UniProtKB/TrEMBL annotation:
This is Phosphoesterase RecJ-like protein. It is an enzyme of class 3 (hydrolase). Residues 15-154 form the DDH domain. The keyword Hydrolase applies. Keywords: Hydrolase. It comes from the Bacteria. The lineage of its organism: Bacteria, Bacillati, Bacillota, Clostridia, Lachnospirales. It comes from Moryella indoligenes. It holds the Pfam family DHH. The keyword Hydrolase applies. Gene3D superfamilies: 3.10.310.30, inorganic pyrophosphatase (n-terminal core). PANTHER family: BIFUNCTIONAL OLIGORIBONUCLEASE AND PAP PHOSPHATASE NRNA.
Length: 318
């Protein structure tokens, strides 16, 4: 067992936990799991979680109400731990607080991680940061509350145990977590499948706007600020659309290109078995995993999609 995390926690009196911008289930689950672990095993330590406001659907996780969403609140800690953060920029407005700590540690599973913290535990073969974090904590300390957090990250990052990084070890860990008595079926519905009315409608919009190119092997959709305004949707409401596009028959790669502010687009890319989308995201200053990656680009959408299509064509020809 890698004891670095436990050693760093033991040596610190105050600890701040950080995640990435637009926190997903793995980010919220891993930060809250570690928060609950420190609170239950070392109640004398000061521990805080600094995150952009996560989606309300994760409110069933213990400690959710304690999340500090305002960087100006100025949480200073001896030890800063970033979880599921693939690069420094992904710390967003909390970067300065992270940098101000005497020691920093990053626990992550992104293949593109450049080891920006003082110390890094990054295992790209892990399905999720939650799976990795499980291996860094003593099993006997995993309460039902901590298990719920870890299970949430595993199901959201594996698409409920189906993405390529899901391993026998992922399933074994999920099994141990289930044994704590968590309501796993409800959690899968709430954290992964359930959508709000607005989310279902903007998904419908993306599906009808979808464009099929490269003989049907690439499918993409552009959601503009006008689309979002018409449906009352936020950027977070676009979550899951790239994955739904990928499920189209014959598709190898899907891209959702969602406008975040005038002229700026967030790309979510998914692939099936051939295209390495983390490489394509990296060309545009982003990153992620081989089968799921993202980036933010300031260019007209048509130009972005022309460039991305060419890169995907190149990979498909190899
Ligand atoms: P998304 O499409 O936002 O669900 O992201 C897919 C994967 O790519 C996740 O693992 C993200 O952490 C990663 N990712 C998304 N956007 C970026 C970005 N701008 N820079 C680095 N990694 C990203
Ligand atoms: Mn994440
Ligand atoms: Mn993750």
């Amino acid at each position: 067992m890698n004891t670095l995390l436990l050693e760093r926690i033991a040596a610190a009196r105050s600890i701040a936990l950080f995640g990435h911008v637009r926190p997903d289930g793995d980010c919220v689950g891993s930060t809250l799991a570690l928060y609950n672990y420190i609170r239950s095993t070392a109640p004398e330590k000061r521990v805080s979680i600094c995150l952009e406001q996560p989606m309300a659907k994760f409110a069933y996780l213990e400690g959710f109400q304690d999340i500090v969403t305002d960087p100006a609140q100025g949480i200073h800690a001896e030890l800063a731990i970033a979880l599921d953060v693939s690069d420094h920029g992904r710390l967003g407005d909390f970067a300065a607080l992270f940098d101000a700590a005497k020691r920093s540690l990053n626990i992550d599973h992104h293949v593109t991680n450049p080891h920006f913290a003082m110390e890094t535990i990054c295992e790209p073969e892990r399905s999720s940061t939650c799976e990795l974090l499980y291996t860094l904590l003593p099993e006997q300390e995993i309460s039902r509350e901590i298990a719920a957090c870890l299970y949430t990250g595993i199901i959201t990052d594996t698409g409920v145990f189906k993405y390529s990084q899901t391993s026998a070890e992922t399933m074994r860990i999920a099994g141990v977590l289930m044994e704590t008595g968590i309501p796993f079926g409800d959690m899968i519905d709430v954290a992964y499948y359930r959508k709000t009315f607005v989310q279902n409608r903007i998904l419908g919009r993306a599906l009808t706007k979808a464009v099929s190119v490269l003989d049907g092997r690439l499918i993409y959709a552009v959601i503009t600020l006008e689309d979002k305004a018409e449906y009352g949707a936020s950027s977070m409401d676009l979550d899951g659309i790239a994955e739904q596009l990928r499920l189209t028959e014959g598709v190898e790669c899907s891209v959702l290109c969602g406008e975040t502010e005038p002229g700026e687009f967030k790309l979510s890319m998914r692939s099936y078995e051939k295209v390495n989308v983390s490489e394509i995201a990296a060309c545009f200053g982003g990153g992620g995993h081989i089968r799921a990656a993202g980036c933010t680009v300031r260019m007209p959408a048509e130009e972005i999609m022309r460039a991305v299509t060419e890169k995907i064509r190149g990979q498909l020809l190899c």
